[in-house]
Protein backbone atom coordinates (compact mmCIF):
# COMPACT_ATOMS: atom_id res chain seq x y z
CA UNK A 1 0.00 0.00 0.00
CA UNK A 2 1.48 3.38 -0.99
CA UNK A 3 1.69 6.01 1.71
CA UNK A 4 1.15 9.76 1.39
CA UNK A 5 1.43 12.35 4.14
CA UNK A 6 -0.50 15.59 3.62
CA UNK A 7 0.27 18.59 5.81
CA UNK A 8 -2.58 21.10 5.69
CA UNK A 9 -5.40 18.63 5.10
CA UNK A 10 -8.17 19.99 7.34
CA UNK A 11 -9.84 22.00 4.55
CA UNK A 12 -9.63 23.06 0.91
CA UNK A 13 -7.22 21.33 -1.44
CA UNK A 14 -5.43 19.24 1.17
CA UNK A 15 -8.69 17.79 2.54
CA UNK A 16 -10.02 16.95 -0.90
CA UNK A 17 -6.74 15.39 -2.09
CA UNK A 18 -6.52 13.34 1.13
CA UNK A 19 -9.94 11.74 0.59
CA UNK A 20 -9.20 11.14 -3.10
CA UNK A 21 -5.96 9.31 -2.28
CA UNK A 22 -7.69 7.28 0.46
CA UNK A 23 -10.36 6.26 -2.07
CA UNK A 24 -7.61 5.15 -4.44
CA UNK A 25 -6.35 2.78 -1.71
CA UNK A 26 -3.42 4.83 -0.41
CA UNK A 27 -2.63 4.92 3.28
CA UNK A 28 -2.93 8.63 4.10
CA UNK A 29 -1.47 10.54 7.06
CA UNK A 30 -3.09 13.95 7.50
CA UNK A 31 -2.18 16.94 9.66
CA UNK A 32 -3.23 20.51 10.43
CA UNK A 33 -4.13 22.52 13.54
CA UNK A 34 -7.91 21.83 13.61
CA UNK A 35 -8.19 18.34 15.11
CA UNK A 36 -12.03 18.03 14.77
CA UNK A 37 -11.80 18.73 11.03
CA UNK A 38 -9.10 16.08 10.66
CA UNK A 39 -11.28 13.60 12.57
CA UNK A 40 -14.23 14.25 10.20
CA UNK A 41 -12.00 13.44 7.24
CA UNK A 42 -10.58 10.34 8.93
CA UNK A 43 -14.12 9.08 9.55
CA UNK A 44 -14.74 8.97 5.79
CA UNK A 45 -12.00 6.31 5.34
CA UNK A 46 -11.11 5.15 8.88
CA UNK A 47 -9.10 2.16 7.64
CA UNK A 48 -6.87 4.28 5.41
CA UNK A 49 -6.48 7.63 7.17
CA UNK A 50 -4.49 8.51 10.30
CA UNK A 51 -4.28 11.98 11.82
CA UNK A 52 -1.91 14.14 13.83
CA UNK A 53 -2.45 17.68 15.04
CA UNK A 54 0.44 19.80 13.77
CA UNK A 55 0.98 23.53 13.84
CA UNK A 56 3.85 24.02 11.40
CA UNK A 57 4.85 27.24 13.17
CA UNK A 58 5.42 25.42 16.48
CA UNK A 59 8.77 24.00 17.49
CA UNK A 60 7.26 20.54 18.13
CA UNK A 61 6.10 20.32 14.49
CA UNK A 62 8.99 18.13 13.32
CA UNK A 63 8.55 15.67 16.20
CA UNK A 64 4.81 15.43 15.48
CA UNK A 65 5.54 15.02 11.78
CA UNK A 66 7.85 12.07 12.56
CA UNK A 67 5.10 10.54 14.74
CA UNK A 68 2.65 10.88 11.87
CA UNK A 69 5.07 9.19 9.46
CA UNK A 70 5.48 6.34 11.93
CA UNK A 71 1.72 5.95 12.51
CA UNK A 72 1.12 5.98 8.75
CA UNK A 73 3.59 3.12 8.41
CA UNK A 74 6.18 5.18 6.53
CA UNK A 75 6.04 7.77 3.75
CA UNK A 76 6.38 7.51 -0.01
CA UNK A 77 5.02 10.98 -0.84
CA UNK A 78 4.89 14.19 1.18
CA UNK A 79 2.39 16.82 0.05
CA UNK A 80 2.79 20.17 1.77
CA UNK A 81 -0.55 21.99 1.43
CA UNK A 82 -0.51 24.22 4.52
CA UNK A 83 -0.66 27.89 3.79
CA UNK A 84 -2.11 31.22 4.69
CA UNK A 85 -2.28 34.41 2.68
CA UNK A 86 -3.76 37.87 2.78
CA UNK A 87 -4.28 40.77 0.47
CA UNK A 88 -2.67 43.39 2.62
CA UNK A 89 -1.80 46.75 1.12
CA UNK A 90 -1.30 48.19 4.64
CA UNK A 91 1.56 45.75 5.36
CA UNK A 92 0.05 44.83 8.72
CA UNK A 93 2.88 43.46 10.86
CA UNK A 94 0.84 40.61 12.37
CA UNK A 95 -0.30 39.35 8.97
CA UNK A 96 3.19 39.70 7.57
CA UNK A 97 4.80 37.68 10.35
CA UNK A 98 2.05 35.03 10.38
CA UNK A 99 2.40 34.52 6.66
CA UNK A 100 6.17 34.16 6.83
CA UNK A 101 6.03 31.87 9.88
CA UNK A 102 3.60 29.52 8.14
CA UNK A 103 4.69 29.66 4.51
CA UNK A 104 8.44 30.09 5.03
CA UNK A 105 9.55 28.81 8.44
CA UNK A 106 6.89 26.09 8.76
CA UNK A 107 7.42 25.06 5.16
CA UNK A 108 11.21 24.80 5.51
CA UNK A 109 10.86 22.89 8.77
CA UNK A 110 8.60 20.20 7.30
CA UNK A 111 10.23 19.93 3.87
CA UNK A 112 13.70 19.63 5.42
CA UNK A 113 12.47 16.88 7.76
CA UNK A 114 10.89 15.02 4.82
CA UNK A 115 14.17 15.30 2.89
CA UNK A 116 16.11 13.87 5.86
CA UNK A 117 13.56 11.05 6.14
CA UNK A 118 14.08 10.07 2.50
CA UNK A 119 17.85 10.43 2.85
CA UNK A 120 17.85 8.10 5.87
CA UNK A 121 15.46 5.45 4.56
CA UNK A 122 17.27 4.72 1.27
CA UNK A 123 14.00 3.45 -0.17
CA UNK A 124 13.94 0.98 -3.01
CA UNK A 125 11.13 3.06 -4.49
CA UNK A 126 11.85 6.72 -5.01
CA UNK A 127 10.48 9.19 -2.46
CA UNK A 128 8.62 12.33 -3.51
CA UNK A 129 8.34 15.79 -1.99
CA UNK A 130 5.42 17.77 -3.42
CA UNK A 131 4.25 21.22 -2.39
CA UNK A 132 1.42 23.51 -3.38
CA UNK A 133 3.13 26.82 -4.03
CA UNK A 134 1.32 29.34 -6.26
CA UNK A 135 1.30 31.38 -9.44
CA UNK A 136 1.68 34.31 -6.99
CA UNK A 137 5.42 33.54 -6.95
CA UNK A 138 5.82 34.36 -10.64
CA UNK A 139 6.16 38.11 -10.05
CA UNK A 140 6.09 40.31 -6.95
CA UNK A 141 2.41 41.05 -6.23
CA UNK A 142 1.96 44.45 -4.58
CA UNK A 143 -1.42 43.54 -3.05
CA UNK A 144 -0.01 40.45 -1.33
CA UNK A 145 3.72 41.10 -0.85
CA UNK A 146 4.30 38.63 2.01
CA UNK A 147 2.32 35.85 0.35
CA UNK A 148 3.87 36.35 -3.07
CA UNK A 149 7.43 36.36 -1.76
CA UNK A 150 6.81 33.46 0.65
CA UNK A 151 5.71 31.36 -2.33
CA UNK A 152 8.88 32.31 -4.21
CA UNK A 153 10.88 31.13 -1.19
CA UNK A 154 9.06 27.78 -1.35
CA UNK A 155 9.89 27.30 -5.02
CA UNK A 156 13.54 28.23 -4.46
CA UNK A 157 13.81 25.88 -1.47
CA UNK A 158 12.59 22.97 -3.61
CA UNK A 159 15.08 23.90 -6.34
CA UNK A 160 17.89 23.99 -3.79
CA UNK A 161 17.01 20.64 -2.26
CA UNK A 162 16.82 19.09 -5.71
CA UNK A 163 20.44 20.07 -6.27
CA UNK A 164 21.40 18.83 -2.79
CA UNK A 165 19.66 15.49 -3.46
CA UNK A 166 21.69 15.05 -6.62
CA UNK A 167 24.90 15.80 -4.77
CA UNK A 168 24.02 13.51 -1.84
CA UNK A 169 22.50 10.84 -4.11
CA UNK A 170 19.18 10.93 -2.27
CA UNK A 171 16.50 8.97 -4.09
CA UNK A 172 13.76 11.63 -4.10
CA UNK A 173 11.88 13.67 -6.70
CA UNK A 174 10.31 17.11 -6.30
CA UNK A 175 6.94 18.37 -7.49
CA UNK A 176 6.12 22.08 -7.42
CA UNK A 177 2.38 22.67 -7.92
CA UNK A 178 1.47 26.23 -8.84
CA UNK A 179 -2.27 26.91 -8.88
CA UNK A 180 -4.11 30.07 -9.89
CA UNK A 181 -7.19 31.11 -7.91
CA UNK A 182 -9.25 28.26 -6.45
CA UNK A 183 -12.41 28.77 -4.43
CA UNK A 184 -11.32 27.69 -0.91
CA UNK A 185 -11.26 29.30 2.56
CA UNK A 186 -7.95 30.93 1.62
CA UNK A 187 -9.74 33.44 -0.59
CA UNK A 188 -11.99 36.24 0.56
CA UNK A 189 -15.52 34.87 -0.06
CA UNK A 190 -16.91 38.36 -0.67
CA UNK A 191 -14.57 39.09 -3.60
CA UNK A 192 -14.60 37.97 -7.20
CA UNK A 193 -11.38 36.63 -8.72
CA UNK A 194 -10.32 36.26 -12.36
CA UNK A 195 -10.19 32.73 -13.82
CA UNK A 196 -11.41 31.28 -10.52
CA UNK A 197 -11.39 27.47 -10.41
CA UNK A 198 -13.41 25.05 -8.30
CA UNK A 199 -11.75 22.44 -6.08
CA UNK A 200 -13.51 19.83 -8.27
CA UNK A 201 -11.62 21.16 -11.29
CA UNK A 202 -8.23 21.74 -9.65
CA UNK A 203 -7.83 18.73 -7.33
CA UNK A 204 -7.67 16.03 -10.06
CA UNK A 205 -5.10 18.12 -11.97
CA UNK A 206 -2.96 18.37 -8.83
CA UNK A 207 -3.30 14.64 -8.10
CA UNK A 208 -2.31 13.82 -11.65
CA UNK A 209 0.78 16.04 -11.36
CA UNK A 210 1.80 14.21 -8.18
CA UNK A 211 1.21 10.73 -9.59
CA UNK A 212 3.16 11.56 -12.75
CA UNK A 213 5.94 13.11 -10.66
CA UNK A 214 5.75 16.33 -12.66
CA UNK A 215 8.58 18.66 -11.66
CA UNK A 216 6.46 21.82 -12.07
CA UNK A 217 2.73 21.93 -12.74
CA UNK A 218 0.81 25.16 -13.22
CA UNK A 219 -2.88 24.63 -12.46
CA UNK A 220 -4.54 25.02 -14.95
CA UNK A 221 -3.46 25.51 -18.60
CA UNK A 222 -5.01 29.02 -18.71
CA UNK A 223 -2.88 30.02 -15.74
CA UNK A 224 0.18 28.47 -17.41
CA UNK A 225 -0.38 30.86 -20.30
CA UNK A 226 -0.96 33.88 -18.04
CA UNK A 227 2.18 33.24 -15.99
CA UNK A 228 4.25 32.74 -19.15
CA UNK A 229 3.07 36.20 -20.26
CA UNK A 230 3.72 37.73 -16.83
CA UNK A 231 7.28 36.44 -16.95
CA UNK A 232 7.93 38.37 -20.16
CA UNK A 233 7.04 41.73 -18.57
CA UNK A 234 10.13 43.57 -17.30
CA UNK A 235 9.97 44.94 -13.75
CA UNK A 236 10.06 48.54 -14.97
CA UNK A 237 6.69 47.89 -16.66
CA UNK A 238 5.38 45.38 -14.13
CA UNK A 239 5.46 48.00 -11.35
CA UNK A 240 2.80 50.04 -13.21
CA UNK A 241 0.35 47.15 -13.43
CA UNK A 242 -2.51 47.43 -10.96
CA UNK A 243 -3.54 43.90 -10.07
CA UNK A 244 -6.34 44.82 -7.69
CA UNK A 245 -7.57 41.29 -7.01
N1 LIG B 1 -7.00 28.74 -3.01
C1 LIG B 1 -6.20 29.34 -3.87
O1 LIG B 1 -6.62 30.20 -4.67
C2 LIG B 1 -4.75 28.95 -3.91
C3 LIG B 1 -3.99 29.36 -5.03
C4 LIG B 1 -2.63 29.04 -5.08
C5 LIG B 1 -2.06 28.33 -4.05
N2 LIG B 1 -2.82 27.95 -2.98
C6 LIG B 1 -2.15 27.23 -1.89
O2 LIG B 1 -2.79 26.00 -1.67
C7 LIG B 1 -2.53 25.56 -0.33
C8 LIG B 1 -3.84 25.05 0.27
O3 LIG B 1 -4.70 26.16 0.48
P1 LIG B 1 -6.27 26.08 0.26
O4 LIG B 1 -6.58 26.95 -0.89
O5 LIG B 1 -6.72 24.68 0.24
O6 LIG B 1 -6.79 26.88 1.55
P2 LIG B 1 -7.37 26.38 2.96
O7 LIG B 1 -8.64 25.66 2.78
O8 LIG B 1 -7.36 27.60 3.80
O9 LIG B 1 -6.28 25.32 3.48
C9 LIG B 1 -5.12 25.72 4.14
C10 LIG B 1 -4.65 24.56 5.02
O10 LIG B 1 -3.46 24.99 5.68
C11 LIG B 1 -3.56 24.61 7.04
N3 LIG B 1 -2.74 25.48 7.88
C12 LIG B 1 -2.77 26.83 7.95
N4 LIG B 1 -1.91 27.25 8.91
C13 LIG B 1 -1.32 26.12 9.40
C14 LIG B 1 -0.37 25.89 10.43
N5 LIG B 1 0.17 26.90 11.15
N6 LIG B 1 0.00 24.62 10.69
C15 LIG B 1 -0.53 23.58 9.99
N7 LIG B 1 -1.44 23.74 9.03
C16 LIG B 1 -1.84 25.00 8.75
C17 LIG B 1 -5.06 24.75 7.36
O11 LIG B 1 -5.40 23.95 8.48
P3 LIG B 1 -5.62 24.48 9.98
O12 LIG B 1 -6.20 25.85 9.89
O13 LIG B 1 -6.56 23.46 10.57
O14 LIG B 1 -4.27 24.43 10.60
C18 LIG B 1 -5.65 24.17 6.10
O15 LIG B 1 -5.74 22.77 6.20
C19 LIG B 1 -1.91 26.77 0.39
O16 LIG B 1 -0.51 26.61 0.47
C20 LIG B 1 -2.22 27.92 -0.54
O17 LIG B 1 -1.26 28.96 -0.43
C21 LIG B 1 -4.15 28.23 -2.88
- The overall pLDDT average reads 96
Largest sheet: 7 strands, parallel
Bound ions, cofactors and other small molecules, one mention each: NADP nicotinamide-adenine-dinucleotide phosphate
Shape: globular
CATH class: Alpha Beta
Cα(first) to Cα(last) distance is 43 Å
Q: Report the β-strand fraction as a percent range.
A: 15-25%
**What is the H/E order?**
EHEHEHEHEHEHEHH
Number of domains: 1
The named CATH superfamily: NAD(P)-binding Rossmann-like Domain
CATH topology type: Rossmann fold
- Quick one: how many beta strands? 7
- The radius of gyration computed from the alpha-carbon positions, rounded to a whole number of angstroms, is 17 Å
Poorly predicted sequence stretches spanning 5 or more consecutive residues: none
Strand order of the largest sheet: 3-2-1-4-5-6-7
CATH architecture: 3-Layer(aba) Sandwich
Class inferred from helices and paired strands:
alpha/beta
As a percent range, the share of helical residues equals 40-55%
List the helices and strands and how they pair.
Layout: E1 3-7, H1 12-23, E2 27-32, H2 35-44, E3 49-53, H3 61-72, E4 77-80, H4 93-121, E5 127-132, H5 145-168, E6 172-179, H6 199-211, E7 216-219, H7 221-231, H8 235-238
Parallel strand pairs: 1-2, 1-4, 2-3, 4-5, 5-6, 6-7
Helix pairs in contact: 1-6, 3-4, 4-5
The structure holds NADP nicotinamide-adenine-dinucleotide phosphate.
NADP nicotinamide-adenine-dinucleotide phosphate (NAP) is lined by residues 8-14, 32-34, 37, 54-57, 81-85, 102, 106, 132, 134, 179, 181-182, 184-187.
Amino acid sequence: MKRIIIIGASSGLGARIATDFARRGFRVGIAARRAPRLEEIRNLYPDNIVTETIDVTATDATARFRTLIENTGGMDILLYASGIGFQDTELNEGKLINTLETNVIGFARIIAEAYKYFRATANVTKGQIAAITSVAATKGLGVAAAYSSSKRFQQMFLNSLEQLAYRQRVNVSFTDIRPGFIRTDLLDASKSYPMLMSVDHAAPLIENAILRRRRVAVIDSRWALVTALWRMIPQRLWRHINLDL
